[in-house]
From TrEMBL:
It comes from the Bacteria. It comes from Virgibacillus natechei. This is Glutaredoxin. Gene3D superfamilies: Glutaredoxin. Transmembrane segments: none annotated. It holds the Pfam family Glrx-like.
Length: 80
């Protein structure tokens, strides 16, 4: 089963929206969501603080500006 890594932070409406889209897509695709709060790891904070929400699906990486239902679904089709 595919594991989707999802970089986020608390109290982030864009992160909440991205998580809602991922949850909705779990009805059609088999994958797990691994949320990673960037404030729990200094390396994640440095790497992703300006990019969150940030999703990694195998080789496909999407930042907050790229994430929408279409890009997520396409990445899942290619990687699950």
């Amino acid at each position: 089963m595919t594991n989707v890594i999802y970089y986020m932070k608390e109290n982030c409406s864009l992160c909440d929206d991205a998580h809602a889209l991922l949850t909705m897509l779990q009805h059609d695709y088999k994958f797990t969501i691994e949320p990673r709060d960037i404030y729990t790891n200094d390396a994640w904070l440095e790497e992703y603080q300006l990019l969150i929400p940030y999703v990694i699906i195998n080789e496909t990486e999407l930042d907050g500006e790229q994430i929408n239902i279409d890009t997520l679904e396409q990445a899942l089709k290619e990687n699950t």
